[in-house]
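Question:
Write out your own:
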Amino acid sequence: MARVLHKTRKVLRTAPPTALFGMTVISIILLAGIFAPWIAPYGQTQVVGAPTMDIGGEFLLGTDQLGRDMLTRVIYGARNTVGIAFLTTALAFTLGAVFGLLAAVKGKWIDQLLGRIVDVLMAIPPLIFALLILSITGASVVNMILVIAVLDSTRVFRLTRATAMNVGVLEFVEAAKLRGEGLWWIIRHEILPNITAPLAAEFGLRFCFVFLFISALSFLGLGVQPPTADWGSMVRENSNLIAFGMIAPLIPALCIAVLTVSVNFVVDWFLHQSSGLKE
C-alpha cells in the first residue's frame, strides 16, 4: 500500500496544471454526487421559496421557476446526471469491448456479421435514432440507458476490434495459440493487457459524449424526467429566465461544460503518460 501511495504521489507531482485542475473538478463533483443527501441544504423536489429568486441571501444560487433551491438541484444533478452517464458508458464499453474482441479473435463470418450490424447502426444519426426509439418506448431512464449504450458501443467495437487485431498477429499471441491456449485465455492474458491504455482513454472520451448526449436528450424532454434533478433538464426548465437577465439556466450549463473540459484534460494527460512521451 505504501509503495502504491508513493508511486501515486510521484505521478501526481509530474501532472500538468490542466490535469490537476481536471482531477480536482472531477473529485469535487463525485463527492457532491455521492454525499448529495447530506450536503444539499434541501430536498431536490422541495419548494423552499418564491420562484426565480436571484443569487444571494438565503439561497446561494437563487431559486428556479418553481421556487426550488438551485444549489440543491445542482448537487443532486451531479448525482443523477453523472451517475447515469457513468452507468451508460460502462454498459456501452462492456458491449463494444466484448463483441470487438470476439470479432478480432474469431474473425471470418462472426467478424463480418458484427461489422455489418455496426455499420448499419453507425449510419443512422445517433440523436435522431435515440429520439425515435424513446418516443416509441417512452422516456424512462432505463430505456435511455439501453438506447445510448447500444449506439455508443459501436464506436467502442471499432476501436477494440482494430487494436485487438493489431495485437493478435504478434508473435506472443501466435505462440499462445500453438501452445493450445483457449480463446478467452488468450484474450485475458495476451490481448486485453496490451490494449488497456487506448481503451481507458476512450472510456473517458466516451463518457464525455454520453454525458453530453444525456444532457441534450434531457434538454429536449426525452431524457431524465422531472422532478428528478438533471443538469440538462434544468437548463430547459429555466431557459426563459435568460430574457429577464437571470443566470439560473447558465449554472447547470456551466457545470456541464466544466466537467466535460475537466475529463478531457485528464484523458489527454493519461494518453501522454501511456504513450511514454516525456515532453
